[in-house]
Amino acid sequence: DVKVTQSSRYLVKRTGEKVFLECVQDMDHENMFWYRQDPGLGLRLIYFSYDVKMKEKGDIPEGYSVSREKKERFSLILESASTNQTSMYLCASSLGGQGAHEQYFGPGTRLTVT
Amino acid sequence: GENVEQHPSTLSVQEGDSAVIKCTYSDSASNYFPWYKQELGKGPQLIIDIRSNVGEKKDQRIAVTLNKTAKHFSLHITETQPEDSAVYFCAAPPGGALIQGAQKLVFGQGTRLTINP
Fold this sequence. Notes:
Low-confidence stretches of chain A: none
Number of strands of chain A: 11
Shape of chain B: globular
Mean pLDDT of chain A: 94
Oligomer: heterodimer
Number of helices of chain B: 0
Number of helices of chain A: 0
Helix content of chain B: under 10%
Structural class of chain B: mainly beta
Mean pLDDT of chain B: 92
Order of helices and strands of chain B: EEEEEEEEEEEEE
Order of helices and strands of chain A: EEEEEEEEEEE
Radius of gyration of chain A: 13 Å
Distance between the termini of chain B: 41 Å
């Protein structure tokens, strides 16, 4: 059974703080993704990674960075948190290789920036 | 880039009735169309998907249909049950979005389905 875990379910941070969201998967997946989920907007891709130390921008990368030092771990970093980054953050992983593969999601981190 | 529109945003049906959620996409090169279900407090989970070489796929009470000419696909749930209450998302990959085996997906806005007993 694939398991994707996220470090926190709920997080409250102040404006200007540096925030780290951690995601770990246990199925040796090559690909990992960070999304944010907002009502009426669905899931929007922030960044994804297809290999260790490799990353690609998604559709809304501004204000975020990522780090993937180990295959199983993908971190999302908010360098200076702002109130418009209050959201639900979802991490996902999938197999690599040709063709489309199911994405397995973690339970999400609800981040509030005050 | 790919644009995915999903309707309706909310849907309420009586237990036992059918529910239909529709999505349209813009990129004619898209070739894979998954549906995800998100229960309260959980992350989305894949429930069914269809590839562009077939027009319909069924799995027990759920089915997905694809019309490539019109660029739309739909999720059909028959004999709905209370456990079908959730938020459903459709998705499509932008054509050519396979980067080193990583398949990007663009998600629809989501549909909150409520099954009334």
